[in-house]
Inverse folding.
């Protein structure tokens, strides 16, 4: 269930990851993959890639995916922005999920945040026309930044997160919610006219 990149210089060939050609969704920073595996289990007619840089966490995707007998989910161990920019074929994802990305709360560390002013362009290149970016965080400051960068990207428009998606929680989300910290959630859809 983990794809060993043969090279980091060429874009991925999707048939090498999945037996069936189906719409693709990608989760960046999938952590223990509890969200992704459950989402994949409920959506067998779609394929899912989980991107994660930590070996111990991506191995959990492998374990959970196998335990559920899934063939529509695959993990790639790599840095998320690099994956979007250089490895994912252009315009091939119908959705990107970014849930509880590291918030880097200190101001001098904000430059490490995944969702920054460059991210909407990366997302646009990766998404098929009409594709959607789904965001969740516990961090109010990061949430504001996420919404500001997407509001400034005129090729995206705000949309809703379907209940069938919102109801599947992530590992970090369950932890935060158990402490009384609510999920901040937003979604942005690529306008169909965006070139
Ligand atoms: C706070 S955790 C959230 C995990 C999961 N999305 C969840 O909600 O339970 C952030 C995850 O993103 C991974 N991560 C952080 N920065 C990354 C990057 N640039 N590329 C790939 N993975 C990254 C971390 O290793 C970690 O597993």
């Amino acid at each position: 269930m983990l794809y060993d990149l043969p090279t980091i210089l060429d874009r991925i060939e999707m048939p090498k990851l999945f037996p069936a050609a189906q719409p693709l969704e990608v989760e960046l920073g999938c952590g223990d993959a509890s969200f992704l595996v459950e989402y994949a289990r409920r959506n067998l007619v779609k394929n899912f890639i989980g991107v994660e840089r930590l070996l111990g966490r991506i191995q959990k995707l492998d374990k959970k995916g196998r335990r559920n007998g899934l063939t529509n989910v695959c993990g790639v161990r790599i840095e998320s922005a690099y994956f979007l920019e250089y490895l994912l074929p252009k315009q091939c994802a119908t959705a990107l999920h970014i849930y509880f990305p590291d918030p880097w709360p200190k101001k001098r560390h904000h430059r490490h945040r995944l969702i920054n002013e460059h991210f909407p362009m990366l997302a646009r290149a990766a998404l098929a026309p009409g594709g959607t970016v789904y965001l969740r965080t516990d961090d109010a400051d990061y949430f504001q930044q996420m919404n500001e960068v997407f509001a400034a990207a005129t090729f995206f428009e705000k949309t809703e997160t379907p209940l069938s998606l919102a109801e599947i929680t992530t590992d970090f989300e369950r932890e935060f919610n158990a402490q009384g910290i609510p999920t901040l959630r937003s979604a942005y859809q690529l306008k169909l006219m965006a070139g």
Notes: The two ends are 34 Å apart (CA to CA). The pocket of S-adenosylmethionine is lined by residues 29-31, 51-54, 57, 79-80, 99-102, 114, 170-173 (CB under 6 Å). The domain at 19-190 is CATH 3.40.50.150 (Rossmann fold).
